[in-house]
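wait is this the right file?? whatever heres the structure
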């Protein structure tokens, strides 16, 4: 089935009178609650206009695909501060308005963030939104899109809540761990068992020879470590950053959790800080039962 905008969705999502062709295709849609991108969905920008390539995906078991490019625009930011926008596929389970007016239909929706000195992605509903891409819109009416992040993941996973980094944080010379970023996994999944697959890049700037270590911890800056320490050392020219990649997966979890990015200075002096832009922390939720 397709709507006037060129969005295709599963035959049993909104059709109360399925025909023979719908039943022939039924096996394709039988994996209820599965979410993820099957193929396509790349993105390019022309100023603040985005071009999403043809895509096939599932959102909570609803099948979605487009045979043509989706073109949309991020509104200009009047504020002097930048903001982050988030493009999702939304499965509407109840009647709404605008693009989400038809229950059961899956449509692309652009969520607009709030301008801030350090902008974060807007809130989304993990129960019905499948994340595709997010990006930063410059302040003062600018048109150059930056900090584009790919949130697509394979079928059988879900997007976790996006993260917050405590930018501008100075890491003291004390060999004590400090939380510099968090990612919140909601309780939307009930008692289902899952593994969180984290993708993390922490940037740290330094102005003196020293060594720093970062890690992921569960629920607090003293919680169970997720993966080993990642260490970097040295001195950087002003304005440059050291990237630390922490791409690990958790043990089997249930319920809501907070994943902490922690950092500590092992030795040395100088102002090691987390810069305002460029950090990334996201997670895919992979259910142990495959659903």
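ok assuming it is, sequence goes like this
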């Amino acid at each position: 089935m397709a709507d006037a905008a060129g969005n295709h969705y599963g035959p049993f999502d909104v059709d109360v009178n399925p025909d023979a062709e719908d039943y022939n295709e039924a096996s394709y849609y039988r994996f209820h609650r599965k979410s993820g991108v099957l193929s396509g969905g790349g993105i390019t920008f022309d100023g603040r206009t985005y071009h999403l390539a043809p895509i096939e995906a599932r959102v909570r078991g609803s099948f979605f695909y487009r045979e043509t490019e989706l073109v949309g625009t991020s509104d200009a930011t009047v504020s002097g501060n930048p903001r982050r926008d988030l493009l999702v596929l939304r499965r509407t389970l109840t009647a709404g308005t605008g693009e989400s007016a038809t229950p059961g239909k899956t449509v692309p929706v652009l969520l607009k963030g709030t301008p801030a000195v350090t902008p974060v992605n807007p809130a989304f509903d993990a129960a019905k939104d499948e994340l595709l891409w997010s990006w930063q819109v410059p302040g003062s009416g600018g048109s150059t899109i930056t900090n584009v992040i790919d949130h697509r993941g394979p079928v059988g996973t879900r997007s976790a809540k996006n993260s917050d980094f405590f930018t501008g944080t100075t890491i003291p010379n004390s060999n004590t761990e400090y939380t510099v970023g968090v990612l919140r996994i909601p309780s939307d999944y009930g008692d289902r068992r899952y593994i969180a697959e984290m993708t993390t890049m922490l940037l740290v700037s330094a102005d003196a020879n020293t060594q720093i270590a970062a890690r992921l911890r569960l629920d607090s800056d003293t919680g169970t470590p997720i993966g080993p320490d990642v260490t970097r050392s040295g001195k950087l020219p002003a304005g440059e950053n050291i990237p630390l990649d922490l791409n690990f997966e958790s043990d089997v979890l249930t319920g809501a959790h907070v994943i902490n990015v922690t950092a500590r200075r092992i030795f040395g002096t100088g102002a090691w800080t987390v810069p305002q832009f460029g950090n990334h922390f996201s997670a895919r939720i992979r259910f142990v039962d495959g659903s």
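The chain has two domains: 1-155, 160-291. so i think its the right one actually
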